[in-house]
Amino acid sequence: MELVIVSDTHGDRAILESIQQQHPHADAYLYAGDSELAASDSIFETYQAVQGNMDFDAFPMTRTIEVTGIKVFMTHGHKYGVNFDLTQLIAAGQEVGAQLIIFGHTHQLGVERHDNMVVLNPGSISQPRGQFADIGGTYAVVTGDRHALNVQYLNRRSQVQPELSRTFTLA
User: For a Cys staple, 128 with which of 101, 133, 147, 157, CB 3.0–4.6 Å?
Assistant: First the structure.
């Protein structure tokens, strides 16, 4: 399984096309909000997107999907208080039985395990903030199966940032 996860492009449509070209065989392309593009844009024929606080078109607020046996819950995060903590977000993921929770909004990459769930923010590909802002924007690629998930962060040139790679076992 390969998931390509992007968030917070804020109008930078070209980077979404570039990322897709770099990962032509992904099982799913997931977009965690704040594209500032129309929901009818052809890019969303490939990327499954949710609505961010800067999206004013008809995107869903959340998505729950299953990809090769992994249940994924995705939202932008602004309605779940992610600027303060992940409590509401984790509860929403638990409610749907997610193994992977994806969110954006903070523009800061991060991944951690909570119970048997991996909670992941790919960071902002266009306007990064926080400790890893000097990378110049990030997205995530998750590979694995029902037993383990490997998370890699890549920069705008699709170069893996090995110091940020993590593997999580699942029960």
Answer: 133
